[in-house]
Request: fold
Amino acid sequence: LRGSCFGIEISNSSNVRIVGNDISSPGNHCAGIHVQNGQFIKTFGNRTHDSGQNVTGTKFYHMIYYTSDSNHAEVAWNEVDGRNSNICRGIQFHSSPANTPGFNQYDLSVHDNYIHDTRCDGLNFATVDPSKGKVEAYNNLSVHTGLGVLTGDQSNFSCIYFAGITNAGSPGAGTAHLYNNTLVDCGPQGGSDSG
Reply:
């Protein structure tokens, strides 16, 4: 699939499986897969690459992006290839205050993905609340992530990042689980949040 902006966009939907796609989104301000207010969305065995080539460098667009109020998600067996892409993170969970209500996300399982060559974090759990349902990442391979954005936009440069922020509702609580991940060359961009 090749989209002009989002390769695949799921909005206000539930019980959807995105399986076995090859996705590039070379246009402006894009993501390979974009899920907003999605419940029980499974993203399995996809390859996202060559996205946002016309973007000048910003932290707001990602290869796989689960945004506002998307819960009960499983992201597994995907390749997230940041080469030839100008967008920021490989996989991100972030409820935006621009998309109300934008509560913290929960019941998120990210496993067995190959994430590489991203400009910002390989995986970002920005607005999450493990007390409402599991937040876990395991068996992922994250290599050569945090290469740096083009414009100097404020961002982070790690293999796995927890921002610990809340945009609406109560702050997150509970314990997230990270295990059996292999993280290599995290944040060669440098800075206090790399590595």
Notes: Residues 30 and 97 are 19 Å apart (CA to CA).
